[in-house]
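User: Batch of two.

Assistant: Item 1 of 2:
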Amino acid sequence: MNIRPPDLLVLLLATCAVSFGGEETLVEGSKRVVSPYTADFRGLSKATPSKTIVDGPLLGNGDMAVCLSEITEIGENRRVRQVANGPRFWLCKNDFWKLAHDYKTGPSGPRVFGGIDVTFPGLEGGSDTEQSLYEAVTVSNWAGGKSGAGVEVRSWVAASENMLVVELKATSKDVEAEVNLWVQEGNGSEVAQGGDGATRWVTRKFEKDVEIATEVACAMTMLGTGTSKFTLKVGEPVTILAAMQSRFKSPAPLDDVQKRIAGMDPAALAALRQAHAAWWRDYWAKSYVEIGDPVLEQRYYLSNYVMACASRDPEFPPPLFGSWNTTDAPGWEGDYHLNYNHMAPFYGLYSSNHIEQADPYHAPILDFLTRARWYAKNAQGIRGAYYPVGIGPKGIETTRNYPDDGYAKPPHFEKEGLFYFQRSNGAYCLVNIAMRWHATYDTEYAKQLYPLVRDIADFWEDYLKFEDGRYVIYRDSIHERSFNGHDFNSMVSLALVRNALELALDMSKELGIDTDRHAKWHHILDHLSGWTYQELALPRLPDEDRSIEKPKVKVFRYTEKGTNWWRNNTLAIQHIYPAGAIGPDSPPEELEVARNTIDVRNGWFDGNGMNSFYPAAVRVGYDPEVILAKLREMIRTKAATNGFIRGNPHGVENCSIVPNTINEMLCMGHKGVLRLFPNWPQDKDARFANLRVWGAFLVSSELKGGMVGQVSIHSERGRPCTLVNPWPGKSIDVYRDGKKVDSLQGDRVVLKTEAGATFSLVSSES
């Protein structure tokens, strides 16, 4: 993957002054805020390889990825034991999959490539590892026990190309070392390897029983030694360089990596290091938050670090477990699950202004569109697109002819595709597309995605039934398999349909096409069934007397007929977030029901949907002190050091929890209305820079002593900005280029903007 430097415009925006008096640029501010944070590991993982998430340090550039573990083997009784002192660098690639349509020919999914083992036979101690989030450099110190020797291992995956750099330095005494590049074998793959001295190469490919052949090559060399087994001398460091390339990026990946390795010398390494530092500097300068809470801030930036490492290849977004696949048999085939899992990792990237990391999201969905149209026609007999539960990249269907495993059974299939009676997967695919569209109003993006949006609108035009003056949804399970497929009016589907049609209207209006469809879409939106309700008891605390009856409160019912509630998951609130059907402008009684539902579902620590639960609580005005306290408790009790959630099989999806929640609390743009600190404790100082909101606005502001300070709004598209007055009862003075250009009055005002212009807003009494 050759990643070009940021555009000049991006660099200019990254260096412009933030509107806190102009004392600090975005580059300076982000460095000050982010650079203190690290991820600190005591020892390295013995639990890798894993079918789900790994728990070691994570490195990557959005295409090539590396995770660290100890060097282990599985012995008797499947016990894992360490077999050598030193780190194992697992080499992974976003586009290395086995790609076959039919499960009967062997499951498809991402595949492990291989790794590099660095061993220090004379060292007896363990290791401590520190990852710098700002610099994206990982440093492990391997101790020698009684010998007093030690080795510093500094590693990073270059941000500008697919190259792993591992720098070895003896810290006190000479140390024996050995480096081995290896490749995973078996499971229908073909491997090859060769080289001599300090230079090695390996390849692995899948060409048999597949729809699309895949291949990855890696070449490794070392600067500072001519052999893979050597004495690491004090003052004489050795640098391991490993380049990776795939057949998707090059017709001759092995030739490419061998040529690149042959061209590496100290000068080339210095240039690579400089490009790496520049990319990460500019990444962090896209936006930042400062909330005076080290626990939450560290998790905020760690989460965005993981997504930067995992997502930048425009054709291959990270699958379920991120880029760090360490087995040929990942859980759920490691695919793109379309009933929320594939969507969730990206939620916080739009508001954090990390659009480059968000954009790979839609590639597999578009690639599958032809097959989804086939399913709509042949499985449902209607127009549009109908998506199964799991897909892969490049149009591959990972769940076709899935085996009867006790969970997936024959009734859950339609024309060999696995749907679990859910009709909503296609509409769910649009929640991120709506976020991206509203955050940027990028018409080139709309031109690319609108055919999908229109197909989903077509599907629901045909699938909905108009009865007794309203549109209803039959035979649509809210949960996989729920009520044997006979759920009626799933509230999540109702919200997703609303989002889909509102998106279709907005995109088509901006593109100036399909205006003849608007009347029908408006009719559906005006007559779509509403929510249904029920009364349920509030949950008991662990130490509460069970003989005392808990009061009941009014909450949402999952469906109008059929499934009324589910014991886990967060389906109870997904119509709020990410579907966006309820927010601050909803009727007060509806918001009260929403908050009651938050209380009864109590999903703060539900690994199967926390990424929706927290931002939903923000959207409906739940107590911000409780939200922050629950976030801290979740981090304390469940968070893994590397950014994942301990013991959670759903992988990278939870990287959105903290960034998305904090961004929504500080700066919300729901339904095109900008709110500053809408659900943030007013006695807690906070500031943010360049958060992106609905309307293609980049916003900066601060809260200090309970008062909102100056507000900066950069308009990318020149759209009008509707703003809830952050200074109630006062007028707003508007400045551009240091000159007052307007004065606005009212509780809710409209700021007229121009594309590319930045406006400063202050209270008239400031």
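Item 2 of 2:
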Amino acid sequence: MSGSIDKSNYDADNIQVLEGLEAVRKRPAMYIGDIGPKGLHHLVYEVVDNSIDEALAGYAKNIAVFINPDNSITVTDDGRGIPTGIHAKEQRSALEVVMTVLHAGGKFDKDTYKVSGGLHGVGVSCVNALSILLTATVYRDGQIFQQEYSCGKPLYDVKVIGETDKRGTTIQFKPDDSIFYNTEYNFDTLSNRLRELCFLNKGIRLQITDLRVVEDAEPRFAEFYSEEGLKEFIKYLDSTREKIIPEPIYAEGEKQGIPIEIAFQYNSGYSENLHSYVNNINTIEGGTHVAGFRRGLTRTLKAYADKEGLLKNLKFEISGDDFREGLTGVISVKVQEPQFEGQTKTKLGNNEVMGAVDICVGEMLGNYLEENPKDAKTIVNKVILAATARHAARKAREMVQRKGAMSGMGLPGKLSDCSSTDPAKCEIYLVEGDSAGGTAKQGRDRVFQAIMPLRGKILNVEKAMEHKIYENEEIRNMFTALGVKIGTETDNKELNIEKLRYHKVIIMTDADVDGSHIRTLILTLFYRYMKKLVESGYVYIATPPLYLVKKGTTSRYCWTEEQRAQAVLDIAKGANPDTVNVQRYKGLGEMNFEQLWETTMDPARRTLKKVTLDNAAEADHTFSMLMGDEVPPRREFIEKNAKYAKIDI
């Protein structure tokens, strides 16, 4: 074959078929992760990914998402439009092939899309298979083409329904409620992902509109657009932190054939917040691109500090962690054929990426340090302070480890342990206060349920140096009770969960403001210093009832205001509702142990909320905003969300 290929000629011949669609409806979780909220929202991401691919290829600038009143979703773009001509191999419209055959699309043709954000996914055909109704409308070649599907099957052949002078694709779909146990979309979840995509793909305008109007309120709307890409992403992530250098350090370019974009900033905090992406996929387990970044950062910073004689008075060696304390960074690489590994298939394995990122970081940082000597000295001083604090933290860590090493004797005195020693069957309740802890101890099943009362509010780790964290008695007791360790002889801060004693770590606090604060403090500790617990799915939140509605011998527990109102009407049975007694539970201690067991601790009847990490960047921003030193962002958040709060007087 000779001659060059016209890459702008995106037509039916560019669509390659890999395999069929048979098993999606039978085993949906294999394809989209689960059939809960995460899988439900993943459907939207798959459709948006197609539009993003068009934007990456240079053919789309605007993408809009609508949550319709019936919880169906509409995604529109101004790209080239999905091809509608007859596919040579399949002998049917290419649009129908894309919509009904798993892993069919232009992204598998390297001349159509150089890189693709959806390569890790299963494509829009999977969305089609899991939708009661999906309508695909394509604007191209002066005509409007349309085809509808039900549960992945075409209702009719692709037809022309009008003429047009615009280009693009509109997909509207309604998830199948016989597959998903909840089909209600969350505006914030979707808008957070679109914000992330706008930073990762600068120059694209993304909009989301929630048409599910409540009463007389205006539809919720958000628009995201970024000119500076990751540079703006860093400014957003660090908007609630005190910066020690004025602007993020930034680089964009192609190394060894791999497009790379990197931005990072140093702040006065004590944690490393590094977020990595491959083809817009959040690689929460890191991989070779993260290893390349860390290697390049350590090598370049240390070489500069040595050359300038800034480390000559230091009496101990600096570690890689010291160079990254107080660093917020984002790495985005585009890889033609990414190889993913790890527990959640979100760890990049391509070895060639490590060297490319290392070189990129070395060049960008080397130039920055030479051109900004004042900022360079500030960064190195921060590194020296981190190294000094690490030595103090190591001693504090070792004290925690030593206490936990002495078999059962090292367990905290307040821990009421369970008799089972199988972590997969065991669970621990972290309970607010000695009083509630006592009630929980009486009500628990001693075979598999352990109770750990917490005295008051634990330390806010967002504001504390590391050694202060390990010196805090309540936090030390938590580490010891759980059996986890931080760090090794090499001072690696990675959490070791090999000896985790419980596979359900359940936070149980009062249903009031103080209880919410304590729960947030514990979650901040887990997110910053025990993230592996969250990533592994071991952290849960207990949901004690808010009300007991009772009349005579009839009673009902209620978890929401709506349930309370309905229970009052049901129990009153047409009589005056004011005869009905409503007890508001503000504290766990207000329930006796039988009530606590049957509502909150009995596996057969309780409801636990599993804590997951769907968007690490958004979690990072939220924790720093809620728990950090900067007051104005927190005040703005409270003022913005006050109308959604329920005040209990």
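The CA atoms of residues 93 and 387 lie 63 Å apart.
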